[in-house]
Amino acid sequence: MTSKVDEALSYEQARDELVEVVRRLEAGGTSLEESLALWERGEELAKVCRRWLAGARARLDAALAEEEEGGAEGDGE
């Protein structure tokens, strides 16, 4: 479950933190417990990013559909 704090993150904030989590995991040198905590945080951040991207896609799809409707109405004139 995503926290209220995570829901308030912008796409860019979540993406940047996710990049840092991945960097730390790839660098190694963390305990198993720390690695698991980082992995879990990364999963939460990825969900935040996916929600932002899904919202952006929906907005684009709506704008394109509106444009197509406007273009279809204009064709009959």
TrEMBL record:
SUPFAM superfamilies: XseB-like (SSF116842). The keyword Nuclease applies. It catalyses: Exonucleolytic cleavage in either 5'- to 3'- or 3'- to 5'-direction to yield nucleoside 5'-phosphates. The keyword Protein transport does not apply. It comes from the Bacteria. It is found in: Cytoplasm. Pfam families: Exonuc_VII_S (PF02609). It is an enzyme of class 3 (hydrolase). Its EC number is 3.1.11.6. Transmembrane segments: none annotated. Keywords: Cytoplasm, Exonuclease, Hydrolase, Nuclease. Heterooligomer composed of large and small subunits. Bidirectionally degrades single-stranded DNA into large acid-insoluble oligonucleotides, which are then degraded further into small acid-soluble oligonucleotides. Belongs to the XseB family. This is Exodeoxyribonuclease 7 small subunit.
